[in-house]
Amino acid sequence: MGLGGDVEALRGEQAGEGGTKDAARWRLVLVWFLRLLSVLWLAKGLMAWMVIFGVSGDGQLPFENRLLSFQAIIVYFAVIDLVAAVGLWLTSTWGGVLWLLATLSQLLLSFFFPRFVPMTTWMVGIYMALIAVYFLVTWAAENEAE
């Protein structure tokens, strides 16, 4: 999937046909939803790097003095969140898959290790809502051509 398809989706056209704006409405919604998620996950990944470099300013121990399990979790999210953000921005399939992996792994880690990955009930609800919207918009965009 190249950038040409994304430009066509932004213009409201489908590949191979002139199409009207109504014909590609859900594809356009999907592209902008993925771009919004990309910006959010880019910020999330950069916040993880702030913890690694000690820029967070929360008065905690330096990163290298923290528990190894905490370090592993932070490095995992520092990498996967940024890679997923790039994939989401490019509106590629692997970006959505990595974003789902990052989101689900954060939910599971917050359930099993709440001390290292604290999440409020509101955040869990927001993550679940984002996953549901992702699946619904993706389904609508794939089925609008029919």
Short description:
The protein is an all-alpha fold and 146 residues long. The protein contains five helices and no strands. InterPro entries: DUF6163.
Can you give the mean pLDDT? 86
Rg of Cα set = 18 Å
Task: Note the gap between the termini.
Answer: 21 Å
Q: Helical stretch count?
A: 5
The secondary-structure class comes to mainly alpha
Low-confidence stretches: none
The major pleated sheet works out as: none
Can you tell me the overall shape? elongated
Number of strands: 0
Strand content: under 5%
Helix content: over 70%
SSE pattern, N- to C-terminal: HHHHH
Describe the protein's architecture and organization.
- InterPro entries: DUF6163.
- The chain crosses the membrane at residues 32-55, 67-90, 96-113, 120-141.
- Keywords: Membrane, Transmembrane, Transmembrane helix.
- It holds the Pfam family DUF6163.
- With 146 residues, the protein is an all-alpha fold.
- Helix content is 71%, strand content 0%.
- It has helices at 3-11, 25-53, 68-89, 93-112, 121-143.
- 19% of the residues are buried.
Throw out a few tags for this protein.
146 residues; membrane; 5 helices; 71% helix; DUF6163; mainly alpha; single chain
